Amino acid sequence: MKKLFKLFLMGMLIPLLSLFSCSDDFLDAPSENQLTPADLPEGITAFDGIAESLYFKPWFTFNDKFLIAVGDMYAGNAFSFDGAYAQFKDAQVTSQNPILAEGYVSLFSVVDQSNNLMKLVEDRKSELPEASYKNAIAISRFMRANAYFYLVRTFGAVPIISKAGSAKQPKRNLISDIYKFIKQDLEYAVQNLPEKSAKKGYVTKFVAMGILAKVHLTLNEYTDSAALTQQIIGNQYTLIQDYGNLFSSPENNNSAESMFALQWKAIATEWGTQNTNQAYIVPGDTGITGGGDGWGVYLPSISLQDDFEPNDTRKKNTIMTDGDFYPELLKTQGGFRYKKIYSSTAANFRKYIVGSAAERNDVFFMRTSQNTIILRYSDVLLMHAEAIMGRAGSTTSEAALSAFNEVRLRAGLPAKTILTRDDLFNERRVEFALEGQYFFDLKRRGLAEATAIISQQEVGFYSDPARTELVSRKITPGNNYFELPLPQSAIDTNPSLLEPPVPFNFN
Asked: Which pTM does this prediction carry?
């Protein structure tokens, strides 16, 4: 009965929240809805149903194209002939780029929805148990912090919107203040989220600690980052044995390795609740999806392919190369064997391919329920090694090597006895390929170091059917490479964004 009521509750409240996220006037607070905590079954609050949408709906257009376009293609992990991605492939993204605008709006929708939900809870604070109140605020602040973490690393200075009903044309705030704001949100989440989630896939204090550790790492605050990752290691998360199950089997969503993931729901009649990645990733003319999608938009760059070491078991689960056989795909036809002719880079991505509608009841045109993982335990292990290394070129620290080698051993690779900076970041590149991390990892290395790396990456294609005649392409990043332009549509709506950033009033 409770389950049915919760479904009814979500049906009532999620459309209301969708309206907030899509509204041009997104800072307006929500109108009072008629459901109050007193109306609900024991153990369920109005916020529980609403909070669930924070794990998917406002993130939709961020995930649809923006995350991979910025995090992977822009940084040289992926190639494409699709004109929509040309600016990312060529590292010449302009303020008029629609994918850039979609991601910006989506991330501010997360901020907007988080703020509106906090207002709803604040207005009803007297009706809620203190623990429920703090948990509700903590989830909202965690989500808001994640949105701002992506915003500041991508665009630099942006406006801090701290509550519903803020100024209609806010000015940008100092980058240092944005990071301070993010830390405050995550520190609150650490203090007030439970150690174990009430529902599978919901965030915990350890998840908040993991994101906070990455914030510290981004700011070169290595001691703080190492202390946080140390508290997570060996607690309740672990690497799963089959790396591929993280990305190709919704049955394995929210595994022991997944810490924070966007919780997609594939519904045939609803748009904006699902993961669309499979539609863009599946090689064209293969019939893997069983529908009209599967366009092979994202192709693994030659540089990425070359960074996999021999015998790395992650490679086949990340990219398809000539002759690779996948018995789990096209099962009714006896499986799928990949041919390099499908791609001008002689490979296609394997991650986030689930299968066809004929073989699954949760796959529809451009719709799967495969989670998008934002943080997983292997990231914590590699962050721990990076934090211990700091700005040094190498380390023999036992703790750093132990964390680093745990990831390598799962991939079937030999352990290292000395960990170099290049070893660490190469490991991150192949471990998190197509997960939207590579651009931000390069950014942490600093402009000079990252520019040297990017300039050497082969991001060309093969021009002949045999895939032997290479048309070489290499990108030399400019000085503004690591700060993408604000969308022109946002500037047109709010010209104050052109003004110099100002301090944020934390009072």
From this structure: 0.92
